Amino acid sequence: MNFFDVIDKRQSIRKFKNKKIENDKLIAILETANSAPSAGNLQAYEIFLIRDKYKKKLLAKASYNQDFIEEADVILIFCANPSRSKHYGQRGEKLYCIQDATIAASYTQLTVTALGLGSVWVGAFNDEKVSEIIGDRSLIPVAIVPIGYPDEKPRKTSRRKLEDLVHRL
Fold it and tell me: For the segment 77-128, what is each residue's pLDDT rounded down to a tens digit?
């Protein structure tokens, strides 16, 4: 699949088949997240991989009962690590680490699509409860990305017109 096909086919998937993701695909996803650009190449983020059913259930509850999270074979939690980007001062600790985690999660979603899998970006969750689940309160949870084989084909959503989005100066 070429890059533009990947962009075109990526959709938010909230229904997953009960099918395991092959290890080689999972490694490819994680390696791609690891290759994402970051401020100063500091990679100021951490990724938590969850397959445990009980932890998935806790995560779904921490995400305001978004129960589809439990259906995914794998859940990746992307967290900003402010201490890794403190080299850049307050801007690094408050922004760059968040950007780093966000870029890694975005690369992940594109890789997931390229591999014929599905995912959805979950940003609605209780930070404190997610921190408790991962066992590290020094990190900032940024995104939860459930991944699995899609069991739905949502309709394409509309996008803003470029004229409304791009502002030429």
Answer: 999 999 999 999 999 999 999 999 999 999 999 999 999 999 999 999 999 9
C-alpha span between 116 and 118 (Å, rounded) = 7
Helix or strand holding residue 100 (H, E): helix 97-114
* Segment holding 33, helix H or strand E: helix 23-34
Instruction: List domains and CATH numbers for the chain.
Output: 3-150 (3.40.109.10)
Q: Is the dihedral of CA 129, 132, 137, 142 positive or negative?
A: negative
User: What pTM did the predictor assign?
Assistant: 0.96
**CA distances to 26, 33, 66, 144 from 72, in Å:** 13, 18, 12, 11
Phi, psi at residue 65, to the nearest 5°?
60, 40
For residue 53 the two structure tokens come to 């059913």
| Rounded distance between C-alpha atoms, residue 107 and residue 29, angstroms | 8
pLDDT in tens, 40-75: 999 999 999 999 999 999 999 999 999 999 999 999
